[in-house]
Amino acid sequence: MPSNHPPPPSAAPVPSGTGEPDPLLLRHGWDDHWQSTWQTSRQSLPEATGTASPDSGTGPPQPGRVVRTDRGRCDVLTAAGLLHAEVPPALAVDPATAPATGDWTAVSGAGGATARLLAVLPRRNALRRSAVTGSSLGQVLAANVDEVLITVPLDVPLRLARVERLLAIAWASGARPVVVLTKADVVDDPGLELAEVGAAAPGARVRAVSTASGAGLAVLAAELTGTAVLVGPSGAGKSSLANALLGREALAVGAVRAVDGRGRHTSVRRELLPLPGGGALIDTPGLRAVGLPETADGVRRAFADVEELAAACRFGDCGHVGEPGCAVLAAIVDGVLPTRRLDGYRKLLREEARAAARTDQRLRAEQRRHRRSTTREHRRSRREREQERGDG
Ligand SMILES: Nc1nc2c(ncn2[C@@H]2O[C@H](COP(=O)(O)OP(=O)(O)OP(=O)(O)O)[C@@H](O)[C@H]2O)c(=O)[nH]1
Ligand SMILES: [Zn+2]
């Protein structure tokens, strides 16, 4: 676990992957897992053999965590400080493999030299949204996260369908979802909302906080130990919450705000910052329309209560539309399961099926393209061979 102590002013670089872990890296989520991943990964890096020429300005590879990405470049925090590294085009082309905030990487370069990203270490998990174009896997919003903080503002009516969608995406990431009801000061007692949201978030923690009154902040902060990422609609209070949790690190967050094309203030850059009590926090730009990626069992986990009921239906393939012995419809009649929730479940399952079909389509298209280019390749080499024979 990251230590509570601030790093010494001049943290020494990790001595080629051995020895004491660097305190600065520890504060940003470095642990035994990354230590051993690094030991394994660095052996396959060309620079690790020491063949890089000293005047190429690269230097030995060192581990670092991506704290921000920016078209073709990314800011990587290393034991030697922050490096503004160039991303090789081979990694950048696919949004699924391009480095994302939270990724652990191997970088070379120090001091004034141009830093280069050498590799992205295998991800433990990733929070994705559905692919907009190109990639079959979807865009990675944040990598190597332990907790997804889903912010739900209490100053506007609850939108449970949106909470459920974000829960499905969070569960699919492999991280633990935590629903954070924000602006709790605008309601007399958030008990009702806590219960309502709790019923829509089986298996997830639900907390109420207010950055205005400070309520709930200490409890939430104490529960965050690994890397947490903030998601939620614009205006949900993500930045305010990030500032409150980060304390004196907040200034760094303030610096990344800007006005967008419509004159609204929005967070324009992703940032990863250490939390004062240990752990790290990633603040993503407002996720307004979040497409559901292929969530593996994300939807099923977000609707674990419905799944459990369905297991008790008489027929294994029950569609819950009027079959005899349907436990799901019985629960609705009994008032245990809201109709809204069953509808939401079906809607997300359909959406997920469509996302999967799109992926299949893309993969088939990729295969077709590949086959076509190989056929062309074959034809050309045959022509060349025939020509050579003709010439000889
Ligand atoms: N009453 C009250 N208002 C709050 C609280 N937290 C945030 N707000 C207000 O809610 C508005 C939005 O807060 P932000 O923190 O900017 O929201 P955001 O989610 O970061 O928004 P984007 O950057 O657009 O994604 C601001 O006007 C805040 O002052 C709170 O605890 N109580
Ligand atoms: Zn049924």
Brief characterization of the structure:
It contains twelve helices and 15 strands.
Task: Describe the overall structure.
The structure is a single chain. The chain folds into 3 domains: 23-45 and 58-120, Nucleic acid-binding proteins (OB fold (Dihydrolipoamide Acetyltransferase, E2P)); 126-283, Rossmann fold (3-Layer(aba) Sandwich), CATH 3.40.50.300; 303-355, Probable gtpase engc, domain 3 (Ribonucleotide Reductase Protein R1, domain 1, Orthogonal Bundle). Strand 2 and strand 3 (81-86) form a beta hairpin. The chain has helices spanning 23-27, 32-42, 89-92, 160-173, 191-199, 217-223, 238-246, 250-254, 298-302, 304-310, 327-333, 339-391; strands at residues 62-70, 73-78, 81-86, 104-108, 115-120, 126-129, 139-143, 147-153, 176-182, 205-208, 227-231, 257-259, 265-267, 271-274, 280-283. Strands 10-9-8-11-15-14 form a 6-stranded mixed β-sheet, with helices on both faces. The protein has a 5-stranded mixed barrel with strand order 1-2-3-5-4. A two-stranded antiparallel sheet has the order 6-7. It contains 12 helices and 15 strands. The chain is flat. With 392 residues, the chain is of the alpha/beta class. Bound molecules: guanosine-5'-triphosphate and zinc ion. Guanosine-5'-triphosphate binds next to helix 7 and strand 13.
The name CATH uses for the topology of the largest domain is: Rossmann fold
Q: Return the CATH architecture of the largest domain.
A: 3-Layer(aba) Sandwich
How far the N terminus sits from the C terminus, by CA atoms, comes to 72 Å
- Strand portion: 15-25%
Q: Characterize the largest beta sheet: strand count, sense, and whether it forms a barrel.
A: 6 strands, mixed
Number of strands: 15
